[in-house]
Protein backbone atom coordinates (compact mmCIF):
# COMPACT_ATOMS: atom_id res chain seq x y z
CA UNK A 1 0.00 0.00 0.00
CA UNK A 2 1.40 3.40 -1.01
CA UNK A 3 0.98 5.93 1.76
CA UNK A 4 2.54 8.90 -0.03
CA UNK A 5 2.81 8.19 -3.77
CA UNK A 6 4.74 10.76 -5.77
CA UNK A 7 2.26 11.03 -8.64
CA UNK A 8 3.11 11.02 -12.33
CA UNK A 9 6.44 12.78 -11.81
CA UNK A 10 7.84 9.68 -10.12
CA UNK A 11 7.86 7.92 -13.49
CA UNK A 12 11.08 9.63 -14.57
CA UNK A 13 13.19 8.79 -11.54
CA UNK A 14 11.74 5.25 -11.41
CA UNK A 15 12.77 4.58 -15.02
CA UNK A 16 16.26 5.85 -14.26
CA UNK A 17 16.80 4.10 -10.94
CA UNK A 18 15.51 0.76 -12.26
CA UNK A 19 17.90 0.99 -15.23
CA UNK A 20 14.98 0.59 -17.63
CA UNK A 21 16.39 3.32 -19.90
CA UNK A 22 19.47 1.19 -20.49
CA UNK A 23 17.39 -1.96 -20.96
CA UNK A 24 15.09 -0.30 -23.50
CA UNK A 25 18.05 1.20 -25.39
CA UNK A 26 19.75 -2.20 -25.71
CA UNK A 27 16.49 -3.60 -27.09
CA UNK A 28 16.35 -0.84 -29.73
CA UNK A 29 13.30 0.89 -28.26
CA UNK A 30 13.06 4.50 -29.48
CA UNK A 31 9.51 5.53 -28.56
CA UNK A 32 7.45 5.21 -25.39
CA UNK A 33 3.65 5.30 -25.34
CA UNK A 34 2.45 6.56 -21.96
CA UNK A 35 -1.20 6.60 -20.86
CA UNK A 36 -3.30 6.77 -17.72
CA UNK A 37 -3.75 3.39 -16.09
CA UNK A 38 -7.45 4.08 -15.49
CA UNK A 39 -8.20 4.32 -19.22
CA UNK A 40 -9.39 0.81 -20.12
CA UNK A 41 -10.28 1.83 -23.69
CA UNK A 42 -6.90 3.29 -24.65
CA UNK A 43 -5.48 2.16 -27.97
CA UNK A 44 -1.95 1.24 -26.92
CA UNK A 45 0.69 2.17 -29.52
CA UNK A 46 -1.97 3.69 -31.78
CA UNK A 47 -0.35 3.42 -35.22
CA UNK A 48 -1.83 6.74 -36.41
CA UNK A 49 -0.55 8.63 -33.37
CA UNK A 50 2.83 6.90 -33.50
CA UNK A 51 3.20 7.56 -37.23
CA UNK A 52 2.28 11.23 -36.87
CA UNK A 53 4.65 11.58 -33.90
CA UNK A 54 7.55 10.07 -35.86
CA UNK A 55 6.71 12.05 -39.01
CA UNK A 56 6.80 15.36 -37.11
CA UNK A 57 10.15 14.49 -35.51
CA UNK A 58 9.15 15.77 -32.07
CA UNK A 59 10.44 14.45 -28.77
CA UNK A 60 7.11 14.57 -26.91
CA UNK A 61 3.49 14.53 -28.01
CA UNK A 62 0.01 14.35 -26.55
CA UNK A 63 -3.34 13.28 -27.88
CA UNK A 64 -6.08 15.70 -27.01
CA UNK A 65 -9.87 15.81 -27.07
CA UNK A 66 -11.82 19.01 -27.60
CA UNK A 67 -13.62 20.13 -24.43
CA UNK A 68 -17.35 19.46 -24.53
CA UNK A 69 -18.28 22.63 -22.60
CA UNK A 70 -16.44 25.42 -20.72
CA UNK A 71 -16.84 24.00 -17.19
CA UNK A 72 -15.89 20.42 -18.11
CA UNK A 73 -13.58 19.12 -15.38
CA UNK A 74 -10.48 18.42 -17.48
CA UNK A 75 -7.03 19.93 -17.58
CA UNK A 76 -6.28 21.88 -20.75
CA UNK A 77 -3.14 22.68 -22.70
CA UNK A 78 -2.19 26.34 -22.37
CA UNK A 79 0.70 28.29 -23.88
CA UNK A 80 2.52 30.11 -21.08
CA UNK A 81 3.23 33.60 -22.40
CA UNK A 82 3.67 34.65 -26.02
CA UNK A 83 5.67 31.90 -27.71
CA UNK A 84 6.17 30.09 -24.42
CA UNK A 85 5.90 26.37 -23.79
CA UNK A 86 2.64 24.48 -23.71
CA UNK A 87 1.72 23.23 -20.27
CA UNK A 88 -1.35 21.68 -18.70
CA UNK A 89 -3.51 23.81 -16.45
CA UNK A 90 -5.94 21.82 -14.34
CA UNK A 91 -9.61 22.79 -14.43
CA UNK A 92 -9.46 23.75 -10.75
CA UNK A 93 -6.69 26.28 -11.54
CA UNK A 94 -8.30 27.86 -14.63
CA UNK A 95 -10.25 31.03 -13.93
CA UNK A 96 -13.91 30.56 -15.01
CA UNK A 97 -13.72 33.58 -17.34
CA UNK A 98 -10.73 32.00 -19.12
CA UNK A 99 -12.47 28.63 -19.24
CA UNK A 100 -15.36 30.33 -21.09
CA UNK A 101 -13.21 32.60 -23.30
CA UNK A 102 -13.79 32.29 -27.05
CA UNK A 103 -11.07 32.28 -29.70
CA UNK A 104 -12.18 35.06 -32.07
CA UNK A 105 -10.54 33.40 -35.10
CA UNK A 106 -12.26 30.02 -34.70
CA UNK A 107 -15.37 30.77 -32.65
CA UNK A 108 -14.45 27.89 -30.33
CA UNK A 109 -13.26 27.87 -26.75
CA UNK A 110 -9.88 29.56 -26.40
CA UNK A 111 -8.59 26.73 -24.18
CA UNK A 112 -10.28 23.73 -25.72
CA UNK A 113 -7.69 20.93 -25.89
CA UNK A 114 -8.19 18.56 -22.96
CA UNK A 115 -5.30 16.59 -21.52
CA UNK A 116 -6.56 13.00 -21.63
CA UNK A 117 -3.18 11.59 -20.49
CA UNK A 118 -2.22 9.96 -23.79
CA UNK A 119 1.43 10.82 -24.42
CA UNK A 120 4.25 9.69 -26.69
CA UNK A 121 7.92 10.30 -25.90
CA UNK A 122 11.25 9.44 -27.41
CA UNK A 123 13.45 7.36 -25.14
CA UNK A 124 16.15 10.04 -25.41
CA UNK A 125 13.74 12.73 -24.23
CA UNK A 126 12.65 10.75 -21.17
CA UNK A 127 16.27 10.03 -20.33
CA UNK A 128 17.08 13.77 -20.56
CA UNK A 129 14.12 14.62 -18.32
CA UNK A 130 15.20 12.06 -15.72
CA UNK A 131 18.77 13.35 -15.77
CA UNK A 132 17.53 16.96 -15.51
CA UNK A 133 15.37 16.10 -12.53
CA UNK A 134 18.28 14.42 -10.83
CA UNK A 135 20.55 17.44 -11.39
CA UNK A 136 18.15 20.33 -10.96
CA UNK A 137 15.04 18.90 -9.27
CA UNK A 138 13.04 20.75 -11.93
CA UNK A 139 10.64 19.29 -14.47
CA UNK A 140 11.61 20.05 -18.07
CA UNK A 141 8.74 21.57 -20.06
CA UNK A 142 7.51 19.42 -22.92
CA UNK A 143 7.63 20.88 -26.41
CA UNK A 144 4.47 19.92 -28.23
CA UNK A 145 3.35 20.88 -31.68
CA UNK A 146 1.23 24.06 -31.68
CA UNK A 147 -2.49 23.46 -31.20
CA UNK A 148 -5.09 26.05 -32.21
CA UNK A 149 -8.70 25.61 -31.06
Structure characterization notes:
- It is an enzyme of class 2 (transferase).
- GO terms for molecular function: UDP-N-acetylglucosamine diphosphorylase activity.
- Keywords: Nucleotidyltransferase, Transferase.
- This is UDP-N-acetylglucosamine diphosphorylase.
- Its EC number is 2.7.7.23.
- A three-stranded antiparallel sheet has the order 1-5-2.
- The C terminus is likely disordered.
- α1 crosses α5.
- A hairpin with a 6-residue loop joins β3 and β4.
- The N and C termini lie far apart (41 Å).
- It has 149 residues and is an alpha+beta fold.
- The chain has a domain of 92 residues.
Quick take:
The chain has 149 residues and is an alpha+beta fold. The protein contains five helices and five strands; from the N terminus they run H-H-E-H-E-E-E-H-E-H.
Shape: globular
Distance between the termini: 41 Å
Question: Given the structure, what is the number of helices?
Answer: 5
Helix content: 25-40%
Strand order of the largest sheet: 1-5-2
The residue-averaged pLDDT reads 84
Keywords: Nucleotidyltransferase, Transferase
Catalytic activity: N-acetyl-alpha-D-glucosamine 1-phosphate + UTP + H(+) = UDP-N-acetyl-alpha-D-glucosamine + diphosphate
EC number: 2.7.7.23
Family: Belongs to the UDPGP type 1 family.
